[in-house]
Amino acid sequence: MSKSNISEHQGPIIVFDAMCVLCTANAQFVLRHDRIGRFRLTSMQNETGAALYRRCGIDPANPDSLLIVDGAKVLRDSDAVLSIYAGLGWPWKATSVLRLVPRMLRDPIYHWLARNRYRIFGKRKTCWLPTPEQASRIL
C-alpha cells in the first residue's frame, strides 16, 4: 500500500510487530474489542507499516515502539498503549487513569518491556495473519 493509500483510511492506524507474541495478542484483542472499528492495524513487517515507521524516524528492522498514526498525529510508547485502550471504550477505557502517572515513569517500563518482548513472551516463527473476517481492518 502506498503512502497515499494510507491517508484514504479513516481513523488511527496501529503499527505493531507481527512476530512478537505479546504484540499479536494485543492486536487480536483490539480486533475483538473494537466494536465500532475505530482502529486499523498494520505490521511493521509489511510495506505500509515499514513506511510509517520510517516516516516517524524509526528503523522498522529495529523498532523500539508500537505506533498509532492518525493523520499527522503520532503516538508512541506508553501514550500509544493507553490511547488504544481508551479508544476501545468501557471497561478498557478505565486504563486511562494510568495517564496520571508521569510519562517519565511510564515510558522506561514500556521501553524495558519492548526491548525484552521476545525473551519474555516469545517470537513467532511466522508473522501473524488475520482471519478473513479481520482482513478488512488490516492494511
Element layout with pairings:
Layout: H1 3-8, E1 13-16, H2 21-33, E2 40-43, H3 47-55, E3 67-70, E4 73-76, H4 77-87, H5 103-115, H6 117-121
Parallel strand pairs: 1-2
Antiparallel strand pairs: 1-3, 3-4
Walkthrough of the structure:
It comes from Rhizobium tropici. The chain has 139 residues and is an alpha+beta fold. It contains 6 helices and 4 strands. The chain has one domain (3-132): Glutaredoxin, CATH 3.40.30. It has helices spanning 3-8, 21-33, 47-55, 77-87, 103-115, 117-121; strands at residues 13-16, 40-43, 67-70, 73-76. The chain is globular and about 35 Å long. The N and C termini lie close together (7 Å).
Brief write-up:
With 139 residues, this protein is an alpha+beta fold.
N- and C-termini, Cα separation: 7 Å
**Major beta-sheet overview:** 4 strands, mixed
What is the C-alpha radius of gyration, as a whole number of Å?
14 Å
Number of strands: 4
- Low-confidence parts: 1-5
Overall 3D geometry?
A: globular
Tally of discrete structural domains: 1
Pfam families: DCC1-like
Protein name: Thiol-disulfide oxidoreductase DCC family protein
Organism: Rhizobium tropici
GO molecular function: protein-disulfide reductase activity
